[in-house]
C-alpha cells in the first residue's frame, strides 16, 4: 500500500477526477474499487500458477505467447515511464506553493523540481535500497493526516451538511462519461497494488497468501479513498465549485484546519518516497532492457558501485525534460494531468488484456481447474467495467493536451508492433529477452518457478 502513495493520490487525483464526476466522485471511486477487486481476482488467478516478478509480461506471455508478452512489456514501459515526470512536477508545484504560503518566498516550481531531481538521482545512484519499514512509517503518517482532515470536514458538517447524495451517479457533471473520467483517476490511485503478486516467489503458501494480500490491499486502501472522496465532495457547496478547484484538498485544509502546512508537508513526503521507489523500479527495467539489447546496450552498463548509472541518468534527464518542457506551456499541474492520464490509461489497457488472458490461460492450460465464475464471468466483467474509463477519454474528449494521451499510447504501440516485426525477422531471440527485463528486476533471492511459456502460435496441451 505504501507504493500507492495514498496522500499523493488523494491530493492530486481528486481535482481531475472531480472535473468529470463532480460531487458524484465517491460513487466513481466505488466503481474503481469494484473494478480493482475484479482485477485482483485476475491477478490472483495467474499468481496461483505463475509466482513471478514479471506481472503482465509473464501473464500475457503464458496466455498469448511471446509476442503478447513483448507488447505488454512495451506498454508497461511507457506507462511506468510517466511516474517520474508526473511526480517531479507535482512536488515542484506543491513545494513552491508551500514556500509562498508559509514564508512568502516565491520560488519557481521548476527550481524545486530540479532540486528534487538531483536529490533522487543521488539517492538512487548511491545504491541505497528502499526500506520497507520506513515506507510503512510514511504510510501510517499519510493515512493519519489525510483521515484526520477528512474526519474534520465531515465532523463539521461539510459545506452544507453531510448527505449520502454524493453516492448518486446522477450528480456526475458529465453523465456516464464523467463517471468514467472519475473512475480513471480512481484506478490510477490504486496502481501499485499489483506489486503484491511479485512476492509469490518468496511467500509461504503463495496460493493462499498472495490472493489474500491482493484483496486486503485493495479493500483497505479503497475504503480510504472512498471515505476521503466523500469528505472532499461534502466540503464543497456544489459540484461545479468542486470541479473548478485545481487543488481542492489545499482549499479544504485552509477552510477546516485554518492552515495547509501539515497537509502540504505530508503530501510532499509522500511524493518524495513515491518518486524514489517508482523511479528506481523503472530504471531497473530500463537497465535490464539495455542489458538484453532490447534498448541501446549502453543503458545496461553498471557503475563501479554496481548501480545502473547510465539507465538512471537517461531516465532522470527524460523526466526533467518532460516535466520542464511540457510544464513550460501547461504548468506543473498540466504535466501531472497529462502524464497521469497516460499512466492510468496504459494500466487500464493492461488490466483489460490480462483479464482476457486469464480466461485463455486456464481454458487452454489448466482446464481441469477452470471455473466458469472465477475464470470466465468475472474476468469478462472486469474487461467490460474497465472500458468505462476509456469511454470517459473519448466522449467527450478531455481538454487539450490530455486528449492526446490515448493517441500517444496508440502511436507507442504501433512503434512496438513494428519493432516486434523487425525482431521476428532479424533477432527473434530478443523477443523472449523482454522477460528478463521484467522478471529479473525483483529483489527475490530465488529463481522464478514458472511454467514454461508456449512457443509463438502453439496450443499448449491441456
UniProtKB/TrEMBL annotation:
A UniProt-annotated Pfam family: AA_permease_2
Signal peptide start-end: none
UniProt keyword terms in alphabetical order: Cell membrane, Membrane, Transmembrane, Transmembrane helix
Domain of life: Bacteria
Gene3D superfamilies assigned to the protein according to its UniProt record, in alphabetical order: Amino acid/polyamine transporter I (1.20.1740.10)
Topological type in the membrane: Multi-pass membrane protein
Regions of compositional bias (Pro residues) in chain numbering: 452-462
Record's protein name: APC family permease
Native source species: Pseudonocardia acidicola
Amino acid at each position: 500500500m505504501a507504493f500507492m502513495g495514498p496522500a499523493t493520490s488523494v491530493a492530486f487525483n481528486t481535482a481531475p477526477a472531480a472535473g468529470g464526476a463532480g460531487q458524484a466522485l465517491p460513487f466513481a471511486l466505488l466503481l474503481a474499487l469494484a473494478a480493482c477487486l475484479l482485477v485482483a481476482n485476475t491477478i490472483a488467478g495467474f499468481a496461483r500458477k505463475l509466482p513471478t516478478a514479471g506481472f503482465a509480461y509473464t501473464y500475457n506471455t503464458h496466455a498469448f505467447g511471446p509476442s503478447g508478452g513483448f507488447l505488454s512489456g512495451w506498454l508497461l514501459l511507457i506507462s511506468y515511464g510517466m511516474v517520474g515526470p508526473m511526480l517531479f512536477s507535482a512536488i515542484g508545484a506543491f513545494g513552491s506553493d508551500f514556500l509562498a504560503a508559509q514564508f512568502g518566498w516565491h520560488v519557481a516550481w521548476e527550481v524545486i523540481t530540479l532540486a528534487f531531481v538531483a536529490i533522487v538521482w543521488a539517492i538512487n545512484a548511491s545504491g541505497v535500497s528502499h526500506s520497507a519499514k520506513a515506507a510503512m512509517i510514511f504510510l501510517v503518517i499519510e493515512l493519519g493526516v489525510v483521515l484526520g482532515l477528512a474526519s474534520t470536514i465531515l465532523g463539521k458538517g461539510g459545506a452544507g451538511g453531510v448527505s449520502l447524495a454524493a453516492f448518486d451517479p446522477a450528480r456526475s457533471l458529465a453523465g456516464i462519461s464523467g463517471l468514467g473520467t472519475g473512475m480513471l483517476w480512481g484506478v490510477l490511485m490504486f496502481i501499485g497494488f499489483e506489486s503484491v503478486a511479485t512476492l509469490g516467489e518468496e511467500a509461504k503458501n503463495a496460493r493462499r497468501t498472495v490472493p489474500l494480500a491482493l484483496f486486503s490491499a485493495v479493500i483497505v486502501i479503497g475504503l480510504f479513498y472512498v471515505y476521503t472522496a466523500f469528505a472532499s465532495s461534502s466540503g464543497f457547496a456544489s459540484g461545479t465549485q468542486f470541479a473548478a478547484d485545481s487543488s481542492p484538498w489545499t482549499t479544504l485544509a485552509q477552510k477546516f484546519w485554518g492552515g495547509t502546512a501539515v497537509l502540504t508537508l505530508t503530501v510532499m513526503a509522500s511524493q518524495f518516497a513515491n518518486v524514489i521507489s517508482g523511479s528506481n523500479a523503472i530504471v531497473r527495467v530500463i537497465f535490464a532492457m539495455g542489458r538484453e539489447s532490447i534498448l541501446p546496450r549502453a543503458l545496461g552498463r553498471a557503475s563501479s558501485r554496481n548501480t545502473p548509472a547510465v539507465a538512471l541518468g537517461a531516465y532522470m534527464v527524460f523526466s526533467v525534460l518532460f516535466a520542464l518542457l511540457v510544464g513550460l506551456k501547461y504548468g506543473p499541474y498540466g504535466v501531472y494531468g497529462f502524464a497521469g492520464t497516460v499512466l492510468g490509461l496504459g494500466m487500464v489497457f493492461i488490466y483489460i488484456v490480462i483479464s482476457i488472458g486469464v480466461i485463455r490461460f486456464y481454458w487452454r492450460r489448466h482446464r481441469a481447474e477452470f471455473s466458469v465464475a472465477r475464470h470466465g464471468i468475472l474476468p469478462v466483467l472486469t474487461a467490460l467495467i474497465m472500458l468505462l474509463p476509456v469511454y470517459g477519454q473519448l466522449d467527450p474528449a478531455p481538454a487539450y493536451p490530455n486528449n492526446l494521451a490515448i493517441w500517444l499510447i496508440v502511436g507507442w504501440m504501433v512503434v512496438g508492433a513494428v519493432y516486434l516485426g523487425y525482431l521476428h525477422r532479424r533477432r527473434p531471440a530478443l523477443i523472449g529477452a523482454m522477460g528478463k527485463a521484467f522478471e529479473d528486476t525483483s529483489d527475490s533471492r530465488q529463481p522464478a518457478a514458472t511454467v514454461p511459456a508456449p512457443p509463438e502460435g502453439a496450443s499448449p496441451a491441456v
